[in-house]
Design goal:
Blueprint (H helix, E strand, L loop, with lengths): L16 H5 L4 H14 L5 E2 L11 H13 L13 H15 L9 E4 L2 H12 L5 E6 L3 H9 L3 E6 L15 H6 E6 L14 H13 L2 E5 L21 H4 E6 L12 E5 L1 H14 L5 H12 L3 H24 L11 E5 L9 H12 L1 E2 L1 E2 L10 E5 L4 H17 L3
Parallel strand pairs: 1-10, 3-4, 3-5, 5-6, 6-7
Antiparallel strand pairs: 2-8, 7-8, 9-12, 11-12
């Protein structure tokens, strides 16, 4: 006798509403395009995600190996805010580079990469419905961190017209009064925009004091700079410690993206809630990685110069080739990216559609501007993350693609 088939039960629980409000993850969408290209046996040249292809410098790797092998006590839970040696190294780095003094005990904190710190900063300060000011376009976690915390992002458009600098006067008074956080990022990802001095930051400090807003500045690209350019730190601005803090990362400077280590500095009262939420939600950065980061920050900086020189070599190769092929491009002052307006023949299509067509026809993956915000539409971001010779291959393909035009 056949037994009746039992009906399999399963739970059906709705995920948090904030997840539904998130836009599709940009690099997830790019990965789908790459997988489809691989399935078609295309030779993919991946210039989409800012994922360094250069190796972590040997002296940093050696420090990690020695610590893990010979110092088993470092395998235990780390201190959530970072070990004292790491925090004092961070404050020493700021003193040497910018002449700024921070208390390593209260004004510096270790992060599992700046992305984690930014997301946790939002959780530490935003209640459901709270407003945070964010540039558009922006590095995705600046916006997504707000949404995941239940907050409401308010766009500060940055465009070619305003030199990719937000116009503070355009923020409505009633919005500014309700805002709790403001996110800024110079040198900028994705636009590569830079500022020359602290004059804009001085306006930001005044604005923040007037409206009681915490300023969160992302300085991840301070070392990836060219031709003598020196980006200012927000914390150099008079009054900055009273209104804000600054995030930094070792990911790009030392090719340590997968190591997940960064830091933040700022006023004690501003950092304290971030430290508190981290103590409840994570155990901090693996101690052996913190010690490797100390080696990176205090050791020879020739590795940084070599990395920057290689990025510039790639940028020059691509810029010259694109201009020759009829796609206008210029060299940025900073970052490992190029921010390009779509070629004239392709400006009737959206940036995602353009990126899809590009990888389908050429095997070249780029990041569509729309993934960084609505004001990024019409642009693509190109990351300098493949071998120099591959840019020669990419240019040959692009030249043919541009000559053919849209379908």
């Amino acid at each position: 006798m056949n037994e009746k088939k039992k009906k399999i039960k399963k739970v059906s629980v709705e995920p948090a509403k904030c997840l539904k409000e998130l836009p599709p993850y940009l690099f997830g969408a790019i990965d789908v395009l790459k997988r489809e290209a691989h399935r078609k046996k295309l030779d993919v040249i991946d210039l989409g995600m800012g994922n360094p292809d250069l190796p972590t410098p040997p002296h940093i790797v050696e420090r990690l190996c020695d610590t893990v092998l010979n110092h088993p006590r470092t395998h235990r839970y780390p201190q959530a805010k970072g070990m004292p040696k790491f925090r004092s190294t961070v404050t020493g780095w700021y003193r040497k580079k910018y002449g700024l003094d921070f208390d390593p005990e209260h004004e510096a904190i270790a992060l599992i990469g700046s992305k984690e710190g930014i997301a946790h900063m939002c959780m530490a300060y935003l209640d459901p419905g709270d407003i945070a000011l964010v540039t558009n376009p922006c590095y995705p976690v600046h916006r997504n961190g707000i949404i995941l915390a239940g907050g409401q992002p308010y766009d500060m458009p940055i465009t070619e017209k305003n030199n990719y600098i937000p116009v503070l006067e355009d923020i409505p008074h009633d919005v500014a009064k309700k805002a709790k956080l403001m996110f800024l990022n110079y040198p900028n990802n994705p636009t590569t925009a830079t500022i020359d001095d602290c004059s804009f930051f001085e306006k930001v400090v005044e604005f923040a004091l007037d409206y009681n807003i915490i300023v969160c500045h992302d300085l991840a690209y301070s070392e990836v700079v060219f031709d003598g350019y020196r980006p200012p730190s927000f914390m150099e601005t008079p009054g900055s410690k009273e209104v804000g803090m600054e995030f930094h990362s070792l990911s790009k400077t030392y090719n340590m993206a997968g190591w997940r280590v960064g830091f933040a500095v700022g006023g004690h009262d501003i950092l304290k809630p971030l430290e508190k939420i981290k103590s409840y939600l994570d155990y901090g950065v693996f101690t052996a990685i913190q010690l490797s980061a100390v080696k990176a920050l205090t050791g020879s900086q020739k590795c940084v110069k070599d990395t920057v020189a290689e990025y510039r070599r790639r940028q020059k190769k691509l810029t010259a080739g694109l201009n020759k092929a009829g796609w206008p491009a210029s060299l940025p002052k900073a970052t490992m990216y190029m921010w390009l307006r779509q070629p004239e023949k392709f400006r009737d299509m959206g940036s995602l559609e353009f990126a899809e067509l590009l990888i389908e026809k050429t095997g070249i993956a780029v990041a569509p501007g729309i993934g960084f915000g609505s004001y990024g539409e019409g642009y693509v971001r190109v990351a300098m993350v493949t071998h120099y010779q591959r840019f020669h291959d990419a240019l040959l393909r692009l030249k043919k693609f541009l000559r053919m035009g849209p379908p």
